[in-house]
User: Which sequence fits this backbone?
């Protein structure tokens, strides 16, 4: 008989800046967790809830993903996303996607309708167009550039933002989603950790992970998969594994955070940055939402 423990964690990016008020984001994230909880109680799958929640984060324009993205140095909006089903190790991703509202929805299309793991650039856009996904016809009117003036890093550093969601459903299935507009002032064609399975997103039978931060560092240490492998091969708890991965990133000079949920419903949401916008449904049914220390 399945363990009916339900757990959901989401993040709105590890670019939170001390001194700024995030009440709007905190309230929004809490509402998304409540909706996710209700969907899970009604029998929704982890994969569906993770995607739906991430779509709503993208659509809000409050975070640096989806509608909240900022342009690259050529003034073009290139978006990345990944989704992974831990139950069957199915995954899909898009990189440098232009002209569509929801990159996570197109990533789900890659997972469900193709034999591939990732499509990039015009290939991703071609699939989105063929499947009728909502287009962005007026980028300057659509995108909100959330956080573009937040100055969450000193000169020469990569200011960033991402959204993600990890879920454990009533059947014990795990799923993860991550979506981003990338770092501010990025070069055309830059791809960070978000759409790279094992770097910014991972789900297997033990744990689901979504990362946020300076993506180059998360790629270097294979952050999401490293966490999973620390648990699988090293016997570490999710907290121990998450802290070890972030310590390695910090030692390299990077910053950021991650969210994770395990097969028994345990959650982790640590960060090595000033703050991380996040919310969670804990295994005991409590909802928490914050941008800084709880």
Assistant:
């Amino acid at each position: 008989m399945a363990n009916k423990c339900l757990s959901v964690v989401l993040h709105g990016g590890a670019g939170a800046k001390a001194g700024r008020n995030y009440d709007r984001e905190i309230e929004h994230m809490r509402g998304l967790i409540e909706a996710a909880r209700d969907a899970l109680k009604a029998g929704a799958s982890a994969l569906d809830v993770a995607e739906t929640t991430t779509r709503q984060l993208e659509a809000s324009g409050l975070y640096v993903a989806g509608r909240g993205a900022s342009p690259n140095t050529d003034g073009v909006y290139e978006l990345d996303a990944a989704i992974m089903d831990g139950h069957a190790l199915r995954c899909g991703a898009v990189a440098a996607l232009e002209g569509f509202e929801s990159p996570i929805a197109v990533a789900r299309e890659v997972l469900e309708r193709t034999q591939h793991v990732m499509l990039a650039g015009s290939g991703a856009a071609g699939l989105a167009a063929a499947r009728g996904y909502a287009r962005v016809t007026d980028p300057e009117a659509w995108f909100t550039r959330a956080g573009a003036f937040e100055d969450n890093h000193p000169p020469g550093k990569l200011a960033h933002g991402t959204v993600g969601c990890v879920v454990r459903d009533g059947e014990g299935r795990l799923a993860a989603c991550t979506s981003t507009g990338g770092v501010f002032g990025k070069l055309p064609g830059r791809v960070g950790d978000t759409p790279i399975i094992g770097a910014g997103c991972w789900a297997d039978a033990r744990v689901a992970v979504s990362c946020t931060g300076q993506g180059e560092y998360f790629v270097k240490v294979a952050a999401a998969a490293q966490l999973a492998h620390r648990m699988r091969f090293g016997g570490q708890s999710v907290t121990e594994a998450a802290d070890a991965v972030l310590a390695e990133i910090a030692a390299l000079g990077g910053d950021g955070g991650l969210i994770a949920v395990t097969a028994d419903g345990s959650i982790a949401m640590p960060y090595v940055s000033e703050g991380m916008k996040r919310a969670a449904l804990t295994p005991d049914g409590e909802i928490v939402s914050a941008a800084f220390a709880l």
Observations:
- Residues 23-41 form the longest helix (19 residues).
- Residues 160 and 183 are 4 Å apart (CA to CA).
